[in-house]
Design a protein that fits this description.
Layout: E1 4-7, E2 12-15, E3 23-28, H1 39-57, E4 61-66, H2 73-82, H3 86-103, H4 119-132, E5 135-137, E6 143-145, E7 185-190, H5 193-197, E8 209-211, H6 215-229, E9 234-240, H7 244-259, E10 265-271, E11 274-276, H8 291-296, H9 301-309, E12 317-319, H10 321-343, H11 351-369, H12 374-393, H13 400-413, E13 421-424, H14 450-469, H15 473-485, E14 488-492, E15 498-502
The chain binds one RNA strand of 75 nucleotides through helix 1, helix 7, helix 10, helix 12 and helix 15.
RNA sequence: GGCGCCGUAGCCAAGUGGUAAGGCAGAGGUCUGCAAAACCUCCAUUAGUCGGUUCGAUUCCGACCGGCGCCUCCA
């Protein structure tokens, strides 16, 4: 069985067949860089990363586009508030996004177009829609897409016959009066003084203004796939569930009206939301957690990936401190095992290990082919780990079959982590007294950085080793305790090796 | 009002019309100067409730109870 994916368009799990065999064009909606991307955004990007990696692992030549929205109401408002240009406001957040993305081991897209770099393409697209009569200029000077000209509208969200919610009539905003139909959406917003103030306005044949929300995705996706794969239909378009309506619905309308094709994308995939302790993340609740928050808390990226992949992408996920702690622990165990497996490498696999490896490969493939069932894929890794440990305990060795199967799984999922580990030198008692002659206290140096803290931990690990050497076990245990209080665990190996492992961040 | 989702062990979470993966936590044991790691053993006869279909349902259908999402710029 090959890859099957849940397609929002059909509301079914469909078997995946790209337009052109062996090649996949993938467009994913990226972040709006008005602020740091939060962990909910990253849940979606992580699901898309899994999709991308699994497609590649399955042998597809993937062309992946992820946009960066650098002009919209929020970016403009934020720039104004700070009194800087749109560009100056947005650039640092674009860089921060890339840092966070890399930290979470998310592969960068092959193309990462920014909306402001594709204004010309948007203008061409909108101009074409105006010529075709599916778009019109409103009284306010903005350009709108006419739903009435596009009979297929509502195909994706199935909200075509929706009515305004009872009691919601007061929501009609001022620009509603400029539209012919309340459901029409804006393609080009006439420039306002606030836009001009931050450099968010461009000239166009149909008036000076800025892009509407949806137009960038259509313009950039079509431009790039036309250039790169010579097509005007995407194989897959993915994003968060909240984008189904209106964003993706509107993208389909404007794109298909423009290309005349039946589809803008043949497969539409949507990832569910992540909540924080049962609540949706929002400024109002003050519960926005960013990737950098987690990093500063000492959480490993592998743990974040594990936590997210332990729930299916179409299932809502609640982020809690307990869940994070459990994932951190499990991810570390996987990392420890990976090291052990690699260290015990030898020429060939024991039968037990090669059998377990084949099972891992098979279970992983079955799970991910089945609409990216990451929880099952991860479970296969744990099963292999348990089997592997037992085999290794029994004196067996790992070989290429076990290692390659494990690497396959870890390459796709990226859920292992190995925190800070200090190897205490073997042999005669090493002196680690710092050159500066400073003496170490029994608690880590205040305000110390990573290097200083490691030096401190190593110092005490050596003291403990010396105490052990003279059988002063009371002192050895006392040092074990003080290290543990600072978040370091001492592990004595059977072969006399000693490791000091960071088990938690000293607070 | 419209469209839709969820309810599985202390917590998180999968599969499946034939008697419940995996993770975290927990219990006992092996190993260890002590520990940690690892290993061995144990940890839901039970799936929100009540009905129905079926030889058989957690899995299908219905009702109810309880949580929740979307319905114009939020991943």
């Amino acid at each position: 069985m090959s890859l099957r994916l849940y397609n929002t368009l059909t509301r079914r799990v469909d078997s995946f067949e790209p337009l052109e065999p062996g090649r996949v064009s993938l467009y994913t909606c990226g972040p709006t860089v008005y602020n740091y991307a939060h962990i909910g955004n990253f849940r979606t990007f992580l699901f898309e990363d899994l999709l991308r990696r699994w497609l590649q692992t399955s042998g597809y030549d993937v062309f992946h586009i992820m946009n960066l929205t650098d002009v919209d109401d929020r970016t403009i408002a934020a720039a104004r508030e700070k009194g800087v240009s749109l560009r100056n406001h947005v650039d640092p957040f674009a860089r921060a996004f890339e840092e966070d993305r890399d930290w979470l081991r998310i592969l960068p897209a092959h193309e990462q177009p920014r909306a402001t770099e594709y204004i010309a393409a948007m203008i061409r697209l909108i101009g074409n829609l105006l010529e075709k009569g599916v778009a019109y200029r409103g009284e306010d000077g903005s350009v709108y897409f006419s739903i009435a000209q596009f009979p297929l509208y509502g195909r994706l969200s199935r909200l075509d016959r929706r009515e305004l919610r009872a009691g919601a009539s007061e929501r009609v905003s001022s620009d509603e009066y400029a539209k012919e139909d309340a459901r029409d959406f804006v393609l080009w917003k006439a420039a306002k003084p606030e836009d001009e103030a931050v450099g968010a306005a461009w000239d166009a044949p149909f008036g000076r203004g800025r892009p509407g929300w949806h137009i960038e995705c259509s313009a950039m996706a079509l431009e790039l796939i036309r250039k790169r794969v010579g097509s005007d239909v995407l194989d897959i378009h993915a994003g968060g569930v909240d984008l189904i309506f209106p964003h993706h619905e509107d993208e389909i309308a404007q794109s298909c009206a423009y290309t005349g094709r039946e589809h803008f994308a043949r497969y539409w995939l949507h990832g569910e939301f992540l909540n924080i302790r049962g609540e949706k993340m929002s400024k109002r609740f003050g519960n926005i957690t960013t990737a950098r928050d987690l990093r500063e808390d000492g959480v490993d990226p592998g743990a974040v990936r594990l936590l997210i992949f332990q729930t299916h992408y179409r299932q809502r996920l609640d982020l809690t401190d307990e869940g994070l702690a459990a994932a951190q622990r499990a991810s570390s165990r996987l990392g420890e095992f990976q090291k052990r497996l690699t260290d015990s490498r030898s020429g060939s696999d024991s039968p037990r290990l090669s059998e377990a490896a084949e099972r891992l490969r098979r279970d992983l493939t079955e799970a991910l082919d089945d609409d990216l069932n990451a929880p099952r894929a991860v479970a296969a890794m744990f099963t292999f780990m348990n089997e592997g440990h037992a085999a290794l305990d029994g004196g067996e060795r790992s070989g290429p079959i076990a290692l390659s199967a494990w690497e396959l799984a870890e390459d796709v999922l990226g859920v292992t982590s190995r925190g800070t580990v200090i190897n205490v030198p073997t042999g005669a008692a090493a002196s680690v007294a710092p050159e500066t002659g400073a003496t170490y206290g029994e608690t880590p140096p205040p305000g110390s950085n990573e290097e200083l803290e490691k030096a401190w931990a190593l110092h005490w690990a050596v003291q403990r080793k010396q105490a052990k050497g003279v059988r002063d076990y009371a002192e050895a245990d006392r040092i074990r305790t003080l290290l543990r209080d600072a978040g370091w665990e001492v592990r004595d190996g059977k072969d006399g090796s000693i490791e000091v492992v960071r088990v938690r961040r000293a607070s």
